[in-house]
Amino acid sequence: MNPDASAAVSDPRILIVPQTSRGYGGLSKECRATARDCPQIRSITHIVDHTVTFAVQRPDAVPLPGGLAWEEEADTEGRPGRGLVRWVLRIDHAMQELDTGELMRTLVVTAGGGIQCSRLHSGQYLVGISESGAGCAPMDEAMNRMVSKIRQERHLTDELPGGRPGEVIEPFVAESPLLMQVLTRDAEEEHRLRAIWHRHLNPTDLHYAAYYRNWSLVCVGDTFDHQELDDTFGRVTAPARRARYRDLVCRLQNELDTLGSIIEPVTRDPVRRLVLDVVEGAFYMHWLDGAEGEFVVGVTFRQPKVAVAEQRLRKLVKEVRAPR
Q1: Under a CB-based contact definition with an 8 Å cutoff, are residues 221 and 201 in contact?
Q2: How confident is the model over 285-316, as pLDDT tens digits?
Q3: Sign (positive or negative) of CA dihedral 152, 105, 278, 23
Q4: Which of 124, 136, 253, 277 has its CA 20 to 30 A from that of 286?
């Protein structure tokens, strides 16, 4: 593989898989421009039907470990992306029971880096890699902007990956009625958790949150019964949805080792944040400091509110993490 010799030294390299790259010149230029404008991006790989067609890569990036001598550079760079796409398809299949649309954006963040997978349309994905935890947010935002732009240019619906730009978190005046279950035997902790959930869950953005310790449920609450969400539940009722989110957490427990192996060429740090962004909202998983089995999950059903719902969840997590 020969990088684009006409590129400036500071421009990302274009890594081509010759036998599969025909017809993607415009797309590779768009990816290259995105990577150039966002220095936190190590690379962006284009994958069609599980096959790497090209990658753009920061010029100073060293090869990822695990590459084979005969392999194209784009294939080596795209190895984590190919694995992540397969993982995403399995999780997407599991999430279809929730009836919230396809999984279109997956973000995996660790302290030492992360990876983002965006669906352009069925069978076609772009996967971005960042080599720092702090770089994951700008990478994610740049990827979201690029995907929205590409879909608009292709006369496809803008699915608002990551939520609607410019949305701000809004304070709510009155507490919303919640259906809650708290399983701790500590009365003081129960009171504390109930208060936290009432301060953050609402029918506008953050609709569901659950706290786990050692992968066992401690506290869960939601606003599914609020009248503002009457239009949200079609064939999947609110009680069924509650059960299926618990099932999804169990599924993810079994899938996290695989996910760790997939991203190992990028970072060996444990996953600390996982976002599964579907067409109608998102599912978030945030780990608390120092305990792999201690985490909070959150859900929103409003796609424009995906970013602000996660902001709200971060505030909830901060209160859960606070010294007790």
Answers
A1: yes
A2: 999 976 779 999 999 999 999 999 999 999 99
A3: positive
A4: 124
